[in-house]
């Protein structure tokens, strides 16, 4: 197409402005516009005159949500991201914290549950009466062959250090099966060479702080 | 089916022109403070958000009226306004102040976006119903221009045009109908429609420039 004569350029700019050009011619014309300021000026003339067709229109108020939508599109970093980020951040942090907690708890339970010492307490006739497993802060007691007990009596467990007095570790659970919690000082008592002993005591245990009845079972703690 | 409602709306909204006072003088949407808008656009090109909001508050109603005139439906017109301002914000630096008034430039953005949308809708083959709706639209075009004569200079110049010139120019300008679509609508030969538009535009321009 010949774009050289002023008349032709003016006519083509007019065709473009009003929309008479087919798509391919439109694209070609837009290419020409890029490098030709005079052609842009010619088009601007047409646009200005044609815009006067909009002159009689009366201004129409725009609902506020239109402005909000525009703002959210030109400021995506301020409007979109913060709206979504807290949720995902919290979710992610939550998941991390939860997995850490689970890992730590499992780890703790696992190490805590490690049996550190074991003892099998024997009766005077060398019959195994009780098995005791020492965990970090409790003892697991398991009856093997336990003598029947009068209602008014209790069995009390003692730790007897190598050279020292027996220290009460607590009462053997009724029936012999169960756990005995250990205090810090009791935990420190336990170690190799310590002998565990079970004495027959009045209901509720010895009142003197020392074994007051006969020792029914005893055996040394053995490290694993 | 979208196209049908579009055309139906297009006819009905042409009537709101009647509400425009016909002899108040130049109170139309083009009477905005040109120098002020120019500065606001320049500020926008520098990324000034406050200037952009001021610009929006002052010209959005005008661009809305153009979008509404093109689309004929409020929801569609609002989308066009939204798209227009996103584009104005990103392209403010491309505005060439020596070529056209700021509002002309912005109206053109709105109008082009609206026409793009309308053309997308029209890509669907026209059903008989739509054909009728389109045909029904044409008598209204004269009335639109009758009420469009609130601007004395424009109305004087539009009076220089014959009925077909006015009709074709207005429909092409606001609704983006191609010459062949217009020819189908008006049941006139394509060449006749094209030369009618060209002669009409030339006459309009000479009159407005005089």
Task: Give the gist of this structure.
With 224 residues, chain A is an alpha+beta fold.
Model description:
The complex is a heterodimer of chains A (224) and B (210). Chain A has 224 residues and is an alpha+beta fold. Chain A folds into 3 domains: 6-54, no CATH class; 64-111; 117-223, Sandwich (Immunoglobulin-like). Helix content of chain A is 42%, strand content 24%. Chain A has helices at residues 6-18, 23-35, 37-51, 64-74, 76-112, 184-189, and strands at 117-123, 128-134, 138-143, 153-160, 167-171, 178-181, 195-202, 215-220, 222-223. In chain A, strands 1, 2, 3, 4, 5, 6, 7, 8 and 9 form a 9-stranded antiparallel β-sheet that branches. In chain A, α2 (23-35) packs across α3 (37-51). The mean pLDDT of chain A is 84. Chain B has 210 residues and is mainly alpha-helical. Chain B has 2 domains: 32-124, Orthogonal Bundle (Rna Polymerase Sigma Factor, Chain: A); 125-210, Arc Repressor Mutant, subunit A (Orthogonal Bundle). In chain B, 74% of the residues lie in helices and 0% in strands. Chain B is built from 10 helices and no strands. Chain B has helices at residues 2-13, 34-45, 49-71, 74-91, 102-122, 128-147, 152-159, 163-175, 179-186, 190-209. In chain B, α1 (2-13) packs across α3, α3 (49-71) packs antiparallel against α4 and α3 crosses α5 (102-122). Chain B is globular. The termini of chain B are far apart. Residues 1-27 and 125-150 of chain B have low confidence and may be disordered.
